[in-house]
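Worked example 2:
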Amino acid sequence: MLAALAALGVTLLASSVLEPRVGTAEIVFLALLPLGWVCVLAANCAYDRRFRTRWLTEVERIARSFVQLAAIAIAACYFGGQGVNRLVVLVALTALAVADLLARAVARVWRRAGHDDGRLPVLAIGSDDAVAGIARALQADRHAGLKIVGFCATTTTAAAGRSRDLASVPLVGDLDSVASAAAAAGAAAVLVCSADVEAEQLRDISWQLENAGIHVIVAPEMPAFAAHRVHLDIAGDRCLVHVDTARFTGTRYVIKSVFDRVAAAALLVLVLPALVTIAALVKLTSSGPVFFVQTRVGRDGRLFRMAKFRSMHVGADQRVADLVELNDVGDGLLFKIRADPRVTRIGRVLRRYSLDELPQLFNVLTGSMSMVGPRPPLPEEVLRYADRVHRRLLVKPGITGPWQVSGRSDLPWDESVRLDLNYVENWSLISDIVLLVRTARAVMCKEGAY
């Protein structure tokens, strides 16, 4: 609410500049906007503690609230706000969204400074293996917003036989003592991890937790489908989960294509001086062409020519067989060497900061690549793909992607495949923007680049 009031102050100041004589109707309308903003946010669960821990979720809910309140404001202006300046309303709505995002960002920094990561403490219920699996997933994705503070076992496991992932998690009870165990552990929710908790038991647990204000989270044994593909339904006394079929055409892909080209064009204008400088340095520091052009496999298996600034000596791609035993990625199809003798001096700098990949912006402009997507593979790599890995080719390859922000060259092959397949199934425009921002950080920190 404080952020909304601050935004209102900024808006009134801006309106006095845009329109020196502000009418009473306009002041009343603007004064009601912060209240409307808070109400719309509440309706979108933006104040619910369960959804405040994942930044992407918060951004999505604020964006949805912005669109909804804008629609309401436009309708109000049309039917009863003839004296209201529409431009001032737009400024007010934008100020509300920006102020709210800034306030939440400050709150996150404040919590971390106090060594509170804001994650929801949960009591896990299930077998040792099931809880250990969820614990690994939460450890790998701390933005999921859950922290296991204790668990109730559905099976008896000796302390010596417990998983290492649960070594620091106390065993606080069983299915008969969930309510008291949750209270003792300070849990705000109960996370049911195992399929061996029957429907009647789950209902009984939820009833036991009602008075304590502790809610139940169920972790079904299913892949992490994107939220927009999952819908809940009821059949009798059972809950059904509908999963939409993944689609790789349609409006979302048209929007992505437009975004890619606009972003690539804007970036090319911004980095044009850098492109000219890098081209001159490559030409002056080693013999050979400025660009290294290579055939890669794109969407639906189509071949295309991908350009990079040359970072190796001429003929380096012909020496792979001689250096295969130096490969630092020995668990998959990739070939990477940390101290690659084929790399030029200027090439090491270009690779460290991914500057050699800037010419791929031209591939994005021509439509063979995307700003964000799976890593563009070589034809010989595709020939060795397992069947499931071919799903990486259902979308355009990207200049960056989840692999780029999760370790780059240090990433094991299996993990790279898992990240790419998850992206192919569940991408969104907002997640693309977040990945682009995270890529900038990964490049500046030189994470996994060689």
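The chain has 14 helices and eleven strands. The first strand starts at residue 120 and ends at 126.
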